[in-house]
Amino acid sequence: MASLARLLSRLSLTPLAQDVRHTAVRPISLESLERFLNKPKPGGGKSYRRIVHYPEEYTIEPLRVTNLAGRDPETGRMIAKGIGGGIKHKYHWIKWVRDGPAEGPPQIEKVVDVIDDGCRTAKVALVAVGNEMKYILATENMKAGDLIKTSRFIPRIPVRANEGDAYPLGALQVGTQIHCLEKYPGQSCHLIHAAGSYGTILRKFGELVVVQLPSKQEFAFQQTCMATVGCVSNIAHAKTPIGSAQKNRELGNRPRSGLWQRKDGRHGRKVRRLPPMRVIPPPSEKAAQPLKLTLKV
Fold first, then answer.
1. Which whole-number Å values give the CA distances from 77 to 74, 80, 88, 125, 256, in the listed order?
2. Is 169:209 a contact under the CB 8 Å cutoff?
3. How far does CA 6 lie from the centroid of its chain?
């Protein structure tokens, strides 16, 4: 301990203290600090791809769209780097609520046309009922002129629904493929929207219906939740290759420019000389074993 005390007494901390005291500290403005801390992060329900200008009332007219290219609409800062460019498409306003009579016969609707929508993966169907027209997600085999039914009545015996019909989960048979499912009764149908996706009704117990989602997870919903029968259209979407970099740019995906380099192997394949050719000789034949014969005399 005495030797340690003598060593500490020889040390002089005064120059160090003076250097620390007179060091110039660069001030940080509160505005820049706030922008750094409050920078939005991708996800959380925001795609930073486009802004749709919705009118006050529902309309079937194609809506005007402002492409964001991965930037925050308020600050203009780059948030999602993988978004940019692309063909500018009009947006078709989908009416997510399939509402029908709670008693009596179902409401019959007619499919006027089935069109492609550049803002989503599935096709869109224009449906007319009475003096109203609306857009819904088209099913796999839906075509112009089809008649579809919508009802909120749950009968004692499950109904035999056709593709495109909308019924509560309690009115459908076990094993039925569905999409556009309500999470809670009365809310918008915001489950199972992707092209080629569908859920399956597995079983019923009490007032609940168990549905297997496309993620293979099983959830129990109330039997009054509305769902549309069938599989979402454009099944080949997930299996269709993009094909070229130009097509990928048309879809609005920005390339990772400057990262992929072939020669040095960064995010790619490094070019190396092929290994020398190796000659494999044929297998050698086994030496003949001498034959020994014995003779008893």
1. 8, 9, 21, 36, 18
2. yes
3. 69
Query: Is-above-0.85 flag for pTM?
Result: no
Judge whether 232 and 179 are in contact, CB under 8 Å: yes
Which has the minimum average pLDDT: 28-42, 62-76, 129-143, 148-162?
28-42
pLDDT over 70 at 12, yes or no: no
Looking at the chain, how many residues does it have? 297
**Does the structure show a pLDDT above 70 at 16?**
no
CA gap 222, 170 in Å, rounded: 8
CA 121 to CA 214: how far, in whole Å?
A: 16
pLDDT surpasses 80 at 192: yes
Which pair of structure tokens corresponds to residue 97? 């609520």
C-alpha 253/C-alpha 255 separation (Å) is 6
Q: What share of the chain is helix, strand, coil (3-state, %, to 5)?
A: 10, 25, 65
pLDDT at 265: 76
* pLDDT beyond 90 at 229: yes
Within 8 A by CB and 6+ apart from 167, the residues are 106, 149, 150, 151, 152, 159, 161, 226, 227, 229
